[in-house]
Amino acid sequence: MADQPSGTGHPAGNAPAPNAPAPNAPAPKPTVRANGSSGKARYPAKYSALSLFTHGLRGRDWPRMWRRHEMRPSYDVVIIGAGVHGLATAYYLAANWGVTNVAVLDKGYLGGGGSGRNTAIVRANYLTPEGVRFYDRSVKLYENLAADLNFNVMYSQRGHLTLAHNDSSLRTMRWRAEVNKLEGVDSEVIGPDEIKELVPYMDTSENTRYPILGALYHPPGGIIRHDAVNWGYARGADIRGVHIHQETEVVGIDVEAGKVTGVQTSRGRIATPVVVNCTAGWASLISDMAGVKMPIITHPLQAAVTEPVKVFLNAVVVSGTLHVYVSQTDRGELVFGASTDPYASYSTRGSLEFTEELAGHILELMPSISKMRVLRQWAGLCDITPDFSPIMGVTPVEGFLADVGWGTYGFKAGPVAGESMAELIATGVTPELIASFDLARFAEGRLVGEKGAAAVGH
Amino acid sequence: MILVSCPWCGPRNSSEFRYVGESKGRPDPNAATPEEWRRYLYVKSNPADWATETWYHRAGCRRFFAVERHTVTNEIRETRRPAAQLRLEGGGS
Q1: How far is CA A319 from the centre of its chain?
Q2: What is the pLDDT of residue B63?
Q3: Per-residue pLDDT tens digits for B37-51
Q4: Would you list which residues of chain A are within 8 Å, Cβ to Cβ, of chain B?
Q5: Which domains does chain A have, with CATH numbers?
Q6: How many domains, chain B?
Q7: How many other C-beta atoms can be found within 10 angstroms of the C-beta atom of residue B69?
Q8: Of A135, A190, A71, which Cα lies nearest the Cα of A417?
Q9: What is the CATH number of the domain that holds B70?
């Protein structure tokens, strides 16, 4: 990528790419630093302590973080889905590669899908070397995101515990710990005594139905404010000239002779040589529009949150056997997640069955919270792939790129997915980091089995 | 929670059942190419619409049957015993 011809129209490479960055845009230049920061911010630091203070004195409203635009008849890149993946792709395209003639379309509002419905857990303790490398890059990007975007994303690396209640899961935890260490990711298996020290309210006695034998402890894991991540990326992309079009539904994708030529939307047609599918839930339906079949089944995943209480839980706790994960937000609410609903559906209705099972399971872990009340529950849509790994990169249709199949782990991959997809679009070369997540792996039998590292059984 | 009407046992909670997946014809294992076989294994139509599915009554009669369900509303309009034809001719998508 360093030997890109500068100032030429077509970026080199064998994969589809925008035919040219906007004429006035600078030539593609990899300005990304090792920590993921895109170098010097080209906009004033709007949210400094000083600006907060002076703004507070003046009492004026803050300017809007992103603008509304008229739709142009054509864009170099059209991204479908204004969630963390779509916005991060747009942001890194503009920030790292100078490609700014980009539109991000969403049929609803920004960050209203999986990006605003997840349980905001970030971790890199996966099972396969490919997965660990990939998610570790995401954790690194998240670590610097607040500074990079000049937006407080409230990333709290409080540690992540995956409990083992039987010998086989303890074995998987050891396996994961070894793969993690080999890839330079901080993970280790710890015993019940150490768990009790980290989470004093956990019932680590031997008299429970599923006694805790140990846990995979992953100190860099933690939680983040997911809305802030979406807003920060949207603001960063908007400042650099990206158009974000909300309430703009894609109803068709024009493909001529195996090449993308445009997108049909509820607000008219856009001509474009590159379409990136960054949707979740509707990923297979959008791909169908371009004539690309995706090996995806969509399941709802429910989550719930309790009333806020004083902070007592300083780690993210996951139990695959009990199908539950829990963390406490900075506001004091407990956020719960569990397994996906047991049948494919596009419905985002909550069910009593879910709350009932969740309550039962969480009380096995922490009996002392039995008086806490659940405030609300919701559901998001998860595109489950056969191997629990995403589908990223080129498709048989030239110019139609996929960033889909994110199942129950899409939010934590947002930054690295955006960075990698932006590199693919700008250079036309699939980055090494995502090469093993291509669509062709299913036909060629190269699955990246990641189910063993899914938070809970699905 | 949805109510699923087993053709043998009558209406029961969906938790009694196992959702097997979309009904689709299996290609002949001896004749299918690896590509056809992998498409059969992995690629589903995943519609946001009416779908014909196979469910299994695991906590009841332990038999498989066909369900017509709308995947957006979860409404079930028909459940029926599987037709032998369905397997031979590869019904569904």
Answers
A1: 21
A2: 93
A3: 988 999 999 999 999
A4: 282, 284-285, 293-298, 342-347, 349, 351-353, 386, 442-443, 445
A5: 75-458 (3.50.50.60)
A6: 1
A7: 23
A8: A135
A9: 3.30.2270.10
